[in-house]
Amino acid sequence: MRGVLLFGLFGIVCNLSVFIDAESDWWQNMALYQVYPRSFKDSDGDGVGDIKGIQSKLEHFKDAGINAFWLSPIFTSPMIDFGYDIANFTEIDPIFGTMSDFENLVKAAKKLNIKVILDFVPNHSSTEHEWFKKSVKGEGKYANYYVWREGSVVNGTRVPPNNWVSVFSGPAWTYVEERQAWYLHQFAVQQPDLNFRDPNLVQEMKDAIVFWLDKGVDGFRVDAIPHLFEADGFPNEPLSGETNDPKNYGYTMKHATKDIEESYDMVSQWRKLLDEYALRTDNVTRIMMMEAYCNVTFTMKYYSYGAHFPFNFGFVSNVNGQSTANDIKVKVLDDWLQNVPEDATSNWVIGNHDNSRVATRFGSKRVDAMNMMSLLLPGVSVTYYGEEIGMEDRWMSWEDTKDPQGCGAGEENYASVSRDPVRAPFQWDATVAAGFSTTSNTWLPVHDNYQTLNLAAQKQAEVSHYKVYQALTTLRQEDVAKYGSVDAKVIGGSVLAYTRELIGSEPIVVVANLADETVDVSLDDFSGLPDTLTVYTASVHSSLTAGAKVSKSSFQVSGMAGLVLRSDATTFTSSLVLVCFMILQAYLRH
Ligand code: NOJ
Ligand code: MG
After folding, report:
1. For the chain, which ranges sit under pLDDT 70?
2. What is the DSSP string of 202-225?
3. Do both 392 and 512 map to the same domain?
4. Residues 6+ apart with CB under 8 A from 440
5. Is residue 139 annotated as a catalytic residue, yes or no?
6. Which residues contact 590 (CB under 8 A, 6 or more apart)?
7. 31, 79, 153, 205 — which has fewest CB within 10 A?
8. Shared-domain flag, residues 346 and 409
9. Residue with the nearest Cα to atom 2 of ligand 1?
10. Phi and psi of 152, rounded to 5°?
């Protein structure tokens, strides 16, 4: 009888794996990392990061527990928008190296089982692209590769075709004498919008995708996708009433220039291309992640059109250092989790090259808590380079300003819109230029705090942002972090806590105190947690450290600190065995 019991128990425990739907594909739980190539690592001392530099730091990804990285553009470019203005979609810009440098990088990454993802920028090229030069001349098939309109003349003055505004401010149209027409540019003047209503152009861009797939890349981050198409007929956009300044992007409501149906259709065409590519080669999924700053409906719509996922910018766009625990729960967690389609892969972006750094947006003491949230919610975590060590925005003088968005705003206003502060070189160590380059004359200046805030120091320190980050990427590998349910609650006003639970696994509890002061926390509202919990990892300044035991009903969390708690493993396993035993008994009695 005992033998039967034990056998049955064994069977039940093994069968617990049925609670995990199916093993996820390589990308569905990846820890993803964004490299801004100019600022990551410079191998040749010219002050600009490059591909060989990235390759020399592949070990860092392994060490940090990263599974995949995406590179902001590395293609031929006059660098008006630092690579987002592309003059040739299938060439490497010499500032970053050569095609063989890139091939070597892919090979080396593959050896380490790290996936490589490229930035695909379909909305526009550079005015330096051959296509644009030919289009200006109206040459053959290139004539319609861009969006040209004749506009009109009012009282002797040439006026643009309509009132559309560029994201970087000013009219979205520029007149070209030679062509006697205006071209559309939703971003900088030097970034003419490509015309996706032209079948040759569509094919040309698909060929570019296949070109890089053949080089061995695992997928694409797709830039500015909501801007791909404009409404037929080029209607004026209604005024928003938010500003009287017609140059301000907020001047009009984006009824004609964003979220147009045809953009979604193009996404599904690309998905088909990726899937077919995988089918005819190695059956390994190639992914597509959409950069789409839009409302939740338009965001989620990308899933149904074949995107592996649209970026979830909730932490970036909906909250900041002033936000309450309830704000984060409602505007980030609920907003996403209650709207994401069932079975779709979620993701959590906390920073990127277009937005202030986590330490600056939320306060440096909140860095670990933010990393805890982004890395321990279901799906993909997205880390911008430097966030694993809590880098801060580097203030830039007007003279040092390079970003077209900053330059376009002028000396008075550049500071509020320039993206340079988040693009300063990675702080590797305390040597010259923070170990980023051999020259101290780097393309953007290094942050003054690099002597103390750097990776080498954080690797040495017993407690550091980096050590917390490593603990988090390690924990992500457990099934409960991959497949566990999420239950989030606001506790006592300032604390956001959530559990991740999966039958057969030790739960994970994340507790973040958003307030400045220490608070007393009880987790009694969560049912099923054991009386005593163990700190798995804690913010660097937290009064509790890894290994400490806390009582579920009352423990203190320092201001702005985050904690990751686990149940005591032995208690948990014995209660699990007990449950299995009871199920088995009931089954035998039946
Ligand atoms: C979004 C990119 O993230 C940003 O850096 C760039 O300026 C615009 N798209 C235009 O490509
Ligand atoms: Mg270089």
Report:
1. 1-22, 568-590
2. HHHHHHHHHHHHHTT--EEEETTG
3. no
4. 432, 433, 446
5. no
6. none
7. 153
8. yes
9. 223
10. -145, 175
Q: Judge whether 153 lies within some domain.
A: no
CA of 73 to the centre of ligand 2 (A): 15
pLDDT given at position 571 = 47
Residue 23 pLDDT: 81
pLDDT at 120 (0 to 100) = 98
pLDDT of residue 326: 98
Pick from 77, 79, 80, 84 the residue to mutate for probing ligand 1's pocket: most ligand atoms within 8 Å of its CB: 84
Q: Which of 470, 493, 509 is the last residue of a domain?
A: 470
Mutate which of 38, 72, 223, 228 to test ligand 1's pocket (most atoms within 8 Å of Cβ)? 223
So what's the pLDDT on residue 408? 86
559 and 410 fall within a common domain: no
Number of domains comprising the chain: 2
Catalytic residue among 42, 223, 259, 506: 223
Residues 334 and 216 in one domain: yes
Asked whether residue 191 is assigned to any structural domain, the reply reads no
335 shares a domain with 259: yes
Dig out the tokens for 163 from the structure: 């009132």
The answer to whether residue 223 is catalytic is: yes
Cα(163) to ligand 2 centroid in Å equals: 41
352 and 494 part of one domain: no
Residues 329 and 455 in one domain: yes
User: Is beta strand 519-521 parallel, antiparallel or unpaired with respect to 555-557?
Assistant: antiparallel
What is the reported pLDDT for 539?
98
Per-residue model confidence (pLDDT) at position 570: 47
Ligand 1 site residues (CB inside 6 A) read: 81, 84, 121, 187, 223-224, 291, 353-354
Q: How far is CA 19 from CA 125, 479, 504, 580, in A?
A: 47, 11, 9, 14
The pLDDT value recorded for residue 574 is: 47
Residue 96 CA: which ligand is closest?
2
Greatest distance between any 2 Cα atoms in the chain: 100
Residue 362 phi, psi dihedral angles, 5° rounding: -110, -10
CA distance 313 to 558: 27
